[in-house]
Design brief:
Elements lengths: L1 E2 L5 H4 L13 H13 L5 H7 L5 H15 L6 H6 L15 H4 L5 H22 L15 H13 L1 E6 L2 E6 L7 E2 L5 E5 L6 E5 L10 E2 L7 H8 L24 H11 L2 E2 L8 E2 L1 H7 L3 H19 L2
Helix pairs in contact: 4-8, 7-8, 11-12
């Protein structure tokens, strides 16, 4: 993993590999040492943990908690951490406890939120709990809320990159302000000399146009919500699978009529001939030619649908 900035390596870049015990970690070790030389030495217990066998996001969480606690006056990391979303505004699934998860409504998301929340709270108890966590002497988290906040930042605001065969995760102050778009006009990468993290435009931007990157070109909203805590209206990757049949099943006419009746502003039962415009529609039509035209079209549509049943 690799917290860094769009600055030179020694100023604001520290790196650890995603799997330091199972692969190459030359670049990560070099970045970690450069970062400490430029800023401050980390406790040996923390550096040992950062190069240990815990998952990359757990190690990055430990690092971010330490930076937030120990470097509030740092000219780069201090303002960056201070401007990150507070815990009560974080929406990624790690933060959805049993009661909150019910609001997600989709069974798949409810189950995923439960899995992520249980895992994250288990990580807090094992490593960061001030009473019995393995890193309790470092006093990284005053509460579970602090751990979940830092883990959420790590999960939603980091970049993945590969340097000389080394898989890295990077936290880049302010570069993570680049929003997602399926019509992205920018990308990110390490510089050719591997001393900077860069955001690069793919085309010229017009005045006032936002630079946007891709968080995943093929992700449907379920995956976007799962990974980042938001959804994209009109996501082009959201599709409803249809059965492989030459002819689709017949629609339920009664259900279709009820849906249309409610959708176009009518009340009553079309089966009994009592369907009529709702009062707000009638009131809106008084003295307004355009509204009266809309009302007439709705009446005609309802009549045609009823006649065809």
């Amino acid at each position: 993993m690799c917290p860094c900035a769009v600055h030179r390596l020694a100023r604001a870049l520290v790196a650890w590999t995603d799997e330091p015990l199972d692969g190459i970690s030359i670049f990560g070790d070099r970045c970690q040492e450069a970062w400490q030389n430029a800023h401050t030495r980390m406790p040996s217990e923390l550096t040992d943990f950062l190069t240990g066998d815990a998952r990359w996001d757990v190690r990055m969480t430990a690092w971010l908690l330490w930076v937030a606690s120990e470097l509030p006056e740092h000219p780069i990391w201090g303002p960056y951490v201070a401007n990150l979303p507070p815990a009560d505004e974080v929406t990624c699934l790690i933060n959805y406890g049993p009661d909150d998860a019910k609001e997600l409504q989709m069974r798949e998301l409810v189950d995923e939120a439960k899995t992520q929340y249980n895992w994250a709270t288990g990580v807090h108890r094992r490593y960061f709990c001030s009473e019995r966590g393995e890193l309790r002497r470092l006093r990284l988290a005053a509460s579970q809320r602090d751990t979940l906040w830092a883990m959420s930042m790590v999960r939603t605001r980091t970049f993945s990159e590969s340097v000389n065969g080394e898989s890295l995760t990077l936290m880049v102050p302010y570069a993570d302000l680049a929003n997602h778009s399926f019509r992205f006009n920018s990308t990110f990468c390490m510089s050719r000399d591997n001393r900077r993290f860069e955001l690069r435009l793919l085309s010229t931007l017009a005045a006032g146009e936002e630079a946007a990157i891709s968080y995943g070109e093929s992700k449907p909203n379920f995956e976007v919500m799962r990974d980042y805590g938001f959804v994209v209206p009109g996501n082009p990757n959201d599709r409803v699978p249809l059965p492989q049949q030459e002819q689709l099943p017949h629609l339920n006419g009664a259900s279709l009529m009820d849906s249309v009746r409610w959708g176009i502003g009518f009340k009553g039962d079309w089966r009994e001939g009592t369907a009529a415009p709702k009062r707000p529609v009638l009131e809106a039509s008084d003295g307004d030619p355009q509204a009266r035209l809309v009302l007439a079209r709705r009446r005609r549509l309802l009549g045609e649908l009823a006649a065809g049943m």
